[in-house]
Amino acid sequence: MPFVLDASIASCWAFNDEDHPLATQALDRLRTDEARVPTLWWFEVRNVLIINERRARITPSDTTLFLRALARLPITIDRTPEESAVLTLARTHRLTIYDATYLDLAHREHLPLATLDTALARAARAEKIPEFA
């Protein structure tokens, strides 16, 4: 079953010291399923990489290699957020608009949400979004 992939999960894949069982599970799942992400995900992942280049945690060449590997994964970008739903979800659950876009996508597509963000995971449970497992 496809799932919604949060940038917090994908970012773990770039750093050896950020291994997390949920991130590993999501990567394994991409061998047989696809992930869906809001447009924002593209920017978030790259922002994490550039910030960590500045911190000397990753090199520009490692960033390039990671982005190439990421591009080969079955990840589809959703470009149609539901504006009123995103605003409502952000207000209801006190989320950022950024996090609410992931929640909106999972809600619209009836898909589990893979995230390491505790507030987002709590909101997903409250919205009865299927648990990623």
What this model shows, in words?
This protein has 133 residues and is of the alpha/beta class. The protein has a single domain (3-126), classed as Rossmann fold (3-Layer(aba) Sandwich), CATH 3.40.50. It has seven helices and four strands. It has helices at 7-12, 21-29, 40-54, 60-71, 83-93, 97-109, 118-126; strands spanning 3-5, 35-38, 75-78, 113-114. The protein has a four-stranded parallel β-sheet. The chain is globular and about 40 Å long.
Summarize the structure.
The protein is an alpha/beta fold. It has one domain (3-126): Rossmann fold (3-Layer(aba) Sandwich). It has helices spanning 7-12, 21-29, 40-54, 60-71, 83-93, 97-109, 118-126, and strands spanning 3-5, 35-38, 75-78, 113-114.
Order of neighbouring strands in the sheet with most strands: 3-2-1-4
Helix content: 55-70%
Number of strands: 4
Task: Give the SSE string.
Answer: EHHEHHEHHEH
The best one-word shape is: globular
Sum up the structure in keywords.
four-stranded parallel sheet; 133 residues; 10% strand; alpha/beta; Rossmann fold
Describe how the helices and strands are arranged.
Blueprint: E1 3-5, H1 7-12, H2 21-29, E2 35-38, H3 40-54, H4 60-71, E3 75-78, H5 83-93, H6 97-109, E4 113-114, H7 118-126
Parallel strand pairs: 1-2, 1-4, 2-3
